[in-house]
Amino acid sequence: METAEIRRRWLDYFEKNGHVVVPSAPLIYDDPNLLFVNAGMVPMKPYMLGQQTPPWQRATSVQKCVRTGDIEEVGKTSRHGTFFQMNGNFSFGDYFKKGAIDLAWGLLTTPQSEGGYGIDGDILWPTVFKDDDEAFALWRDHIGIPESRITRRDENDNYWSMGVPGPGGPSSEIFIDRGPDYGAEGGPSVDEDRYMEIWNLVFMQDELSAFRSKADFDIAGPLPTRNIDTGMGLERIASVLQGVDNLYEIDEVYPVLAKAAEMTGKKYGEHSGHAATASHPNDVHLRVVADHVRSSLMLIGDGVTPGNEGRGYVLRRMLRRAVRAMRLLGYGDKALPELLPVSLERMQASYPELAADFPRISQIAYAEEDAFRRTLDQGTTILDTAVTKAKQSAASLGGTSAPTLPGSQAFALHDTYGFPIDLTLEMAAEQGVEVDQDGFRRLMTEQRQRAKADAKAKKTGHADTEVWKELRALGATDWQAYQALSTEAKVTGLVSDGARVEGLGEGSTGQVVLDRTTFYAESGGQIADEGIITTPTGQLRVRDVQRPVKGLVVHTVDVLSGEIKVGDGVQAQVDPDWRVSACQAHSGTHVVHAALRQVLGPSALQSGSYNKPGYLRLDFAWNSALSKETRSEIEEVANLAVRQDLAVSSQFMTLPEAREWGALALFGETYDEQVRVIEIGGPWSRELCGGTHVAHSSQIGALTLTGESSVGSGVRRIEAFVGMDALRYLAKERALVAELSGLVKVQPDELPDRINELLARVKDAEREIGRLKQQQLTAQAGELLSTATDVAGVRLLAHDAGELGADEVRSLVTDLRARLGDGAPSVVAVTGAAKGRPVIVIATNGPARDRGVRAGDLVKVAAGVLGGGGGGKPDLAQGGGTDPSAVGAALDAVERTLAG
Ligand code: ATP
Ligand code: MG
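^ inputs. structure came back:
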């Protein structure tokens, strides 16, 4: 049975049984504690916790999930994907244990011909919480499962909680016995790969008053309403119903694996049995590729872009692990352009939006692969050098110990170049070099500790959120930013240094909460309004405005004069000039976005923005630099929209309505039920936006693009000035041009030609200087010849050429060697030092080499004295170092070595 069909049957079954079908929430959800949605109940949490009244008593969903904690399990067990879909059914104060067990049993065991999954009940093994006699009895007496197949387990396995005081309850999990091919007999407690958990039923019934650990908490009493939360892994049940060994082999995943196997010429499963735990490494790599490619597709689809922290890092890690796994399988070419479309092909049946968005998704993924390939190439070069060095130093120790790469170098490769340690191990091993893994791990631990300390320091600011929650409990701020610039208001709270206070005096700084305000709080890329709050006795300057919790607007102020007290009647006044400029900038951002998409196409979607009076910047998905022509075109389209004086309007509607309308919703933002849509020129620009805007596009004034750059793989940034700032910017450029044309004495139009001409002349002059220097050197060379001395039968010409650069030293050396001729064994050694970096070049002639003198060997000795390294061939070699004062000693060392 195809996964899409399993999913359909699930929803049908529960809908028939009175559940409302709720669509999957995006993977990024409005919960600061969660990187990604990791269970079907996440979007249901407010109802489960009693924070909101559930709109239905029974609901069902197929929720997209990502569990970053399972990343290391991928491919090594049969049942862990990083991305997976959790089928859930939920009851809010409606049916409880009996209902949940009945429903689950019904769907699992109803024959396929009657719409169920048709699983033989005899291979199902339920577990229950050790004290949950009720659930035990339901399975035994009501369903009829023999006691021997029902396992009682403790808090660690069968008690659900959120890890904090609040709701909790016992759970009952349904395992399926996959048979002796998959592991040892004896039930879920013996082998979790043979007995695979497919479905978890949570019976939320207890109110926890204290929570010390997963297995140690206090139950205060029963919950007022009891809820049911269940989760069944869609991929897991698919692997069972499709008769395959693991979830990487189901219809939604396997085609990618097969493609990867074909590309790498590996035969999947050749050396592995049914149990994933005993798989050949190549099979594990292939599963990693299949899993991670799919997860990346889904993550980018939901708006994640690769980055160095948080969600972006998870995505980056998955993309890189996939590419790396392909490398380990021996495939060095670009892999994602082959693999990602295969995954799309499989996933679009359930997620049709992926197909429309694929140009953007693939662009981001491919750019990340390209970047990683560069990293790998760079890292490989560095690794090769390090490996060679490790071999040399082992050889210099007489070859008694195996060559070892220092832990510090493995760490530097990992830390600076993003070069993964297992790749370092793998590639070093190929060359017979070991890696000091202990050293590497020690450095990693140290780094982790530093990071932890950092995070802790950041957290101290968190004391505040409690204060904001308290103030929010007094009531939501009546927010009038769209309607007016000024309003009367009452002071409902004051905060100083993170604590509530009754008053703030002259010269102090703090936060002010009003019952009503016209100040715009920073959000959606627009910075906060500035302005003044006037109290009965004084004036406050508003420096920043934030919304630390939903519904509460907080002004950060400097008290300029007088004081402010809780309960004061005040006047809140936004600086009108500021607001006009802020509106210009925000509307300008929408105009530039629309212009970008008009010129580049719809995949150039904004991924972030920032605007403040006079300035805006916008990040968008695109992976190559924009040409000068394209930039001008975008600028022109934007300014044309300004000139056409398009009407700007705002209206509220529901999110689905807004989507229907084609309004662009930004990723990573979460929206309320009612959203605000800003239109500029009707459908030309439609975006979900809470910002402040001009009424007509002409009010934006001039708009000039100032820069375009890369801010990460697949993301470009465009910057612009608007309004008066655009004019000032252009005026400054004009003044600069005038100054330059004055300096070089031509008309502005002729500047480029003139400057090119000047540059050419500078180049010619440099070349001439070089030629003269060379002449001078050649003249000196004659004199130098006479300074050659005899060292153990070899003529040695050693000379310090002062501040000469490497190229010049080299040509001097070869010139001197030619002049010395081949009559007698001769060696030339010359040092120089350009910009404080000493260099030494040594040359030998034929007769010297016949006597076993090698330039490369001599250079190594000399460079060692200079504090560096070097090498080359027996006839010519070069080295360098860090200590220019040691050149004399280096030449002496050459002489001593020659002397023997
Ligand atoms: P396991 O112990 O096997 O990792 P779990 O206890 O973490 O499972 P739950 O948190 O109870 O799982 O999630 C409910 C259901 O979601 C599980 O019964 C399983 O079918 C599915 N599930 C959980 N994690 C994964 C995963 N990484 N990949 C696929 N399905 C999963
Ligand atoms: Mg798990």
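The chain is about 40% helix and 25% strand. The longest helix spans residues 353-396.
thumbs up if we can close this ticket
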